[in-house]
Amino acid sequence: MPDPITPLTPHERDMVAHIERTQSPSEVLRELKQNLQTAIEIELATIPIYLFTYYSLLRNKQTGENIEPPQLFANKAGGFIMSVAVEEMLHMSLSANILFAMGVAPQLYGKAPAAYPTGLPYHDPKGPPGPGGVTAVEIPLARLSFEQLWHFLQIEYPESRLTFPADKNWDTIGQFYSYIRCQISTSFVTDADFRHGAAASQIQPYNYSPNNVDTVYPKEKFDPWKVAPPGHLPPGTTHDRHPSASAAAVFTDQADSHAGPAQLVTVSSKRDALIAIDTICDQGEGYAREQGDETPSDDPSKREWSHYYKFLRVQAEFDRYGSEEETLPDDPKPPVAIRPGVSDAELLKAQVLFDFPDNPVARDYPDELRPLADFCSGLFQYMLVMTETIFLVPPSGQKRFFNEALHRSMIWVLDKYIQKLRDIEVPTGPYKGKPMAPVFENISLRNQKDSFAALTELGEKAMAAAAAIQNNPNYTAASKSGASGASYYVSYALTYQSNGYPMHLPNVAPYWP
Amino acid sequence: MSDPQRTNGQPVPEHNPYKDQPAFPTTIGPQPEGLPLHACMGLNACAGADRFGTAGPPTTGKPNECAGQGYCATTADHTCHVKNDCRNQGGCGLYGTGEEMNQPAKNDCRSLGSCATPINAERFSTNGPNQGKSVWLRARDVFATEVWPELRAELLHKQAQGQVPATQKLPEKLGPVPEVFAPSGPTYLWISADNTKRDNMTACGASGMSGAGGCA
User: Is B95 close to A78, i.e. CB distance below 8 A?
Assistant: First the structure.
């Protein structure tokens, strides 16, 4: 088996020597910890950006045999964006595990971007210009569009192996992680430095799954009545015009997309830390590809594209792709345009794209909608608190806590809550006529110990607002239904019980001093 | 081109092989006392334990005769990952790890199960060794080879202590599932009553590939 750790490049070896020559061991350790916290904040910054665009897509207005080309594209784009978002959550977890191993509690709560559009921490993009001829622009919360995909490319722009590692003013995320690799690779950093936080208390490999039904998309129309293989139906049951859902499914992430023994590794040595960094870089940029590979994959089986290439493939289906509006690097070789191309207008007309306002903020929603927006931010912040709490939960209880906290909040609460919000048409103010979009603000939940109580207060206000909307003539029946549905998911998050057992989000208070 | 007036699920197959089967029950009938609930068709532990319960289907009034023969889930229907109430009551295939997806309807306790119940026959695993394959067929296999031997031993022990009726048959070999469903498990065509009752079951997933009426 080849060593899973990518060897240092000549520039990285030079940087290691430079660091050892110019810094003391204590300086290197201090800066490494700071950089790991910055890495967490970089990964965290991408998540609201990707999720916002993801939720602008309606992926299943048409299913099965009724899928028309705009729907097929929207479903595919959603699958790819979610596949990247899932891996950004993995990257955040990996950086957090390394930092925790060094004895520092990872900080996430309140660490998302303060406002949008936003830059990424210490990012100084110098890549090719995008639409409008500008390179260094900030990244918005925006619905899917040709421009937004260019911003995604800007985030995931691949590092050249000839560029220098950098912890400030980096052009690519790869440069930043390259610098961290150099710091870890110095003789100043030893295995003992990664044994200050127990591996058993870190986020465990068993919590991560690369695919789910939301990272999957159909490559073509499918027969929804056909059963999954190796099952079969009595002869003559279906028309046999299209494949089954399972045969049409494309799995956008792959289980072998990682450098070490698992995608989500725990850390108790330099080697573990370097493996974690390699996984982050390979998934983002397809760095592990061999010389001459034109398609950047990030896994030995060559079935998963890098983040950059996933987004580029989605963008290649836009009718504006290939025009002179956007300059792309030669490496990796840009895919050919897929024709006929789609346009924003076509997606909006087909009602598979929500015309979200750009960079919405709670204060610009009408008074009666603001509590619903605040709960969205509060829930997002509480998910960050719960992630911090994982490191405090006794290891024997981590699996259950992770399921009840993170899986439940992401899949069953936030996902459904946002879907209900977007059914609400904003009746007044700057966003008049637009569907309500999620907001991901750094709203205060007080301290971590009180955060569930604070979220509960936000939830009570949101439910009261949803109830009041039912009697507000400014709102359509569909909007009222959306508000009512959102209110249901608030109650699910805070108070839901089944057969006498609490099934709501866990209160983290017992874990915090 | 598709007909723009079509709604999800259409066109519905012209031939419905389940017309002679009892209709999918939306409510769960009375269950044998002291015996475990389960996640889907053919995963029941004893006679009379299925969705129709001890009274049996209204068409026959005859409950299923033994373990493995039952019609569909008796656990409180749930739509999503980590929403199961109890041991061995999770569905599977939509969310969760490869390991979880390789042992559908086998989970240690509440909140550790995966995904919606019942397990519709169209559903495929999205992770792990069973990726792209039938969740229900895997669940039936896991039930037969792993869950039932362990569960049977527990129930035999309880039976010896008088906690399970002596009349309850606990055969070593599972009984067959209803014949028309044996090659696939419960199809959504049957669950949705020929696509007329899509709300009979929902399963999560924005991709629309869960094979059931979606909660998205």
Answer: no
